[in-house]
Design a protein that fits this description.
253 residues; mainly alpha; two-stranded antiparallel sheet; 7 helices; 2 strands; binds fe (ii) ion
């Protein structure tokens, strides 16, 4: 089963505004100190009356990237079993989505251009992490390029499957920590370094960048793309990711 991955920049959005609003509302409930304080400061969401703060916007972008990491880990597991089990065109599609939405937009145009310089200028423990985060962006670009190179024919050769699986696992391990540190340390330090007016301006700037980059709502487009990739690879059913029950207490494993 093979298919040619579409260009993630030019896919129509099919995701409803209400679904986005529900997701945004849930995040707001979990992050009262973050989302509520920015409620009047940042860009409009997908439904009237729902607004997405600049930091929350980047955190939900991490949600898309984490779904790609899940695809990477699950694909690595299948590759270790048998390379031909994977439709490598879909792996290319996942890496291309990470490049367009993660590397070119989220990392390069938001974090490296706006967030990291401000955090570094503010100083403190968060500033000390910036060089490592930038180095991890660069390493991620190397790994995604490698994955695309070895997957572009649609079949990953037997000789490449372990190296590709190792690259996918290594990328996922790195970026899980990377995104978690950004969510909990960097974005919070960035938000605190800005006045309410500057934060509002940043949110509007980010929205403008997103519209230019994707010719629409980049988040909705990216969610549609990763959902299609998950379905194509057989990773689309959330229930299949429910962990098995643990051994009974007292039993020897
Ligand atoms: Fe980053
Ligand atoms: Fe990030």
């Amino acid at each position: 089963m093979t298919s040619t991955p579409p260009d993630p920049h030019h896919l129509p959005s099919r995701r409803g505004a209400l679904a986005a609003a529900v997701a945004i509302g849930g995040a707001a409930l979990l992050l009262p100190g973050c989302a509520r304080s920015e409620k009047n400061e940042d860009k409009k969401g997908g439904e009237e009356g729902v607004e997405v703060g600049a930091t929350e916007d980047m955190m939900r972008e991490h949600g898309v990237l984490r779904r790609i990491l899940v695809v990477y880990r699950a694909s690595a597991g299948l590759l270790r079993q048998e390379a031909t089990k994977i439709d490598a065109h879909q792996l290319v599609a996942a890496a291309d989505l990470f490049r367009a939405f993660g590397e070119d937009y989220h990392e390069h145009k938001l974090e490296e251009a706006h967030v990291f310089p401000a955090v570094k200028k503010a100083g403190g423990p968060a500033a000390a992490l910036i060089d490592t985060l930038i180095a991890q962006h660069a390493r991620g670009r190397e790994i995604n390029a490698f994955v695309v190179d070895r997957s572009k024919t649609g079949i990953i050769s037997a000789g490449d499957k372990v190296a590709v699986a190792d690259a996918l696992d290594g990328f996922a391990r790195m970026y899980e920590k990377h995104a978690a540190i950004e969510d909990t340390v960097i974005f919070q330090a960035w938000r605190k370094s800005l006045s309410p007016e500057a934060l509002k301006d940043a949110g509007e700037t980010f929205e403008d960048i997103e519209k230019v980059q994707f010719k629409g709502d980049g988040f909705d487009i990216a969610v549609d793309r990763i959902a299609a990739i998950e379905r194509a690879l057989g990773f689309g059913d959330l229930a299949t990711f429910t962990a098995p029950p643990p051994p009974h207490l007292g039993s020897n494993v």
